[in-house]
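User: Structure please.
Assistant: Input sequence and predicted structure:
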Amino acid sequence: MSQDPKIEEFQQDSLIDEREKPVPPKRYNVVLYNDDYTTTEFVVMVLETIFRHSNEEAIRIMLQIHHHGMGIAGLFAKEIAETKMFETIRLARQFEYPLQCTIKLEE
């Protein structure tokens, strides 16, 4: 049985060259930094509300920040990472905490 020439042409044209494969978007870590004033309870609350971590995971990340000076709150596309960073900083200032938050390109 012969294949329809239009289907054959479509199949040949629709084959994606390796060089044409879409490149996945770059992802960014949202990093929180330890300080001497922001309470651990506030950091856990930020991790639970803004970053949607469970209480257990939020506590684990908070302890990482506390013991190592910094910790990763999440990994996101750039626009989402920036939004979460700004939300974190805004909330920290609202509660008068100096909590620092940045984004860094995933390595």
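The chain has a mean pLDDT of 90.
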